[in-house]
Structures are given as C-alpha cells and as structure tokens.
Amino acid sequence: VTSSLPGEGKTFSSINLALSLAAERGLRVLLIDADVIRPSVGNMFMAPPTEGLTDLLTGKVGHVSDVLHRCADIPNLAVIFAGNPSANTPELISSGKMANLCRELSARYPDRVIVLDTPPVLASTEPAILASYVHHLLMVVAADQTDRHQLRKSLETVASCQSVSILFNQGPRWNEATHIAYYGD
C-alpha cells in the first residue's frame, strides 16, 4: 500500500485493510511497516516494540519470529513494526536482504495475506523497489491533493508490479440535501 504524496491516508488504509482481512474467518494477515523513514503503524498500537523490520534487515535480530508480534485482540493479525532508525534505511529496503525477506515470508506463510505499508512514491525510492516484490499494489489517492501528473508519474514508477489498484480517499462530502433527495425522502 502506497500513495503518491504524504498525507493521503496510506497508513490508515493499510491498517484498516489488515484489520478487515484479519476479521475474516480462516484468513491470517501480516502487516509490515515498511515506511522505515517515517513509521507510523506503531502509533495505532499500544506500546509497540522498538525492534522491527530495520533490525531484521541489519542483522541485529536474527529471525522473523523475533520481530513478529501477534495482536492479542485480533488473533489472525500479526505485525512487524518498522524498528529502530538506521543511517542507511533506504539501502536496507533496497537490499537483497529485503528481497529475500519478501520471498521467505511469501514461502513461509502461503496462507497469509501480507500487507506492506510503504513510503509515498514521489517522496522515496523504496516503493519502486518493493513493487517488484509484491503481487498486488494498492495506490491510495486523496481527493484534491494529488494531481493527474503526480498520479501518472507514481503509477509509472511502480509499473514493475503487474497488478495495481487505486483507492480513492478523502473524497468531498456529499451535500446532505442532494443525498436525501436521491433516495426520494
């Protein structure tokens, strides 16, 4: 899950997508905060751990299970938080270790949907790299924020992913009188 620009609601959408999928019977979900420069998935959880994705990629933590946190209230949801800041954060996401991690997670958890919350496409190079590792990409587009040129550029940047969907977010409010009249009230 990504967006063209910051503030379009990609993290909110990532978390809600993960929660919605995890609510389904028999469907397990892994949410990964891959926006390691400006992580915010942890802000939605009580007392998130400090170790996470960056610690796994730098080798400070040896195994995925060491940073995989199961949600007590939602048994079908697990989260890997961003982890400790690192000086070479962009390089970590672009590294062979990240590619291997994506392959490992996909092979290890074939019954699980993995949701990656990534940085905005026009603010970082990581989404373009991660796009080639994922099966589907969700581009969050905020109304009246991203123009067509920015969206086109973003979509071209992540074109290595064969399946891309757009989620329109922050749409304008309907005029309540028009909405009521529509249903004949």
Short account of what is shown:
With 185 residues, this protein is of the alpha/beta class. 33% of the residues lie in helices and 17% in strands.
Question: What does the secondary structure layout of this molecule look like, with pairings?
Answer:
Blueprint (H helix, E strand, L loop, with lengths): L1 E2 L6 H13 L5 E6 L19 H6 L10 E2 L6 E4 L8 H6 L1 H13 L3 E6 L8 H6 L5 E6 L5 H10 L6 E6 L6 H7 L3
Parallel strand pairs: 1-6, 2-4, 2-5, 6-7
Antiparallel strand pairs: 3-4
What does this 3D model show about the protein?
This protein has 185 residues and is an alpha/beta fold. Helices cover 33% and strands 17% of the residues. The protein has helices at 10-22, 53-58, 89-94, 96-108, 126-131, 148-157, 176-182, and strands spanning 2-3, 28-33, 69-70, 77-80, 112-117, 137-142, 164-169. The protein starts with a strand and ends with a helix.
